[in-house]
Amino acid sequence: MQLDWTTFFLEVINFLVLLWILQRFLYRPVMASLDARQQRIKDETARAEQLRSEAEALRLQYETQLADWAKQHEASRHQLDAELQQARSKALDELRKSLLDEAAKKQARDGAVIAAHESALIREAAGEAYKQAAEMLVRLASPALTQAIVDVFLTDLSALNDAELNTLRKAAQALIDASLVEVRAAHALGSALQERISQALSAAAGQALAPVFVEDVNLIAGIRVVVGECQMHANLRDELAFFRRLNQHV
């Protein structure tokens, strides 16, 4: 077999031309396409990784926010419970105070009613006692009792203090007539007793007085002396009236 060098070289040239054509029109575009595809894959992978990282960050953010919301909700619930408890306590305190005030008012009203009832009973009893005492004193009244009361009056008249003496003397000095002095007696007084009364009044008044003596059975027993604006009572009727007025103010 004889080698044909011309054919051989032509074949080599054809092969080289083929390699160049493949390199030029097939290999490079294919490699460029593969490189572009690989780059796209890398870009997509990077993008996916970025998205995954962002998703993970969002998940962590949401979880953190949910945890914060849960804490805030728990804190709000505790605060609401505390406010409700405080409101309940305040309402109970106000209700308790209102009940105590109402009880105190009721007790005061009951006490006032009881006191008024007791006062009415006391006044009624005192009025009945006054009536019985007056009836008894009327039965016991006598000239001797009147004279005994006059003796007590004269003793008290001689023992008047300075203020009482000044009042009596001013009333006597204001008289237009010294005879405008009246002595009312429940029973007729003897001349000797009238003289004693006149002398005692003149001595106490610091000037001569000429009292007019009048019998007044309404006095029950004792006397009533009027010197101008000054009145002196020493009789059972005025004493009973005084105690009756005190009873009316009970």
TrEMBL record:
Coiled-coil intervals: 34-90
The protein's name: ATP synthase subunit b
Compartmental location: Cell inner membrane; Endomembrane system
Record CDD domains: ATP-synt_Fo_b
Function: Component of the F(0) channel, it forms part of the peripheral stalk, linking F(1) to F(0). The b'-subunit is a diverged and duplicated form of b found in plants and photosynthetic bacteria.
InterPro entries linked: ATP_synth_b/b'su_bac/chlpt, ATP_synthase_B_chain
Keywords on record: ATP synthesis, Cell inner membrane, Cell membrane, CF(0), Coiled coil, Hydrogen ion transport, Ion transport, Membrane, Transmembrane, Transmembrane helix, Transport
Predominant cellular place of this UniProt entry's protein: membrane
Entry keyword Ion transport: yes
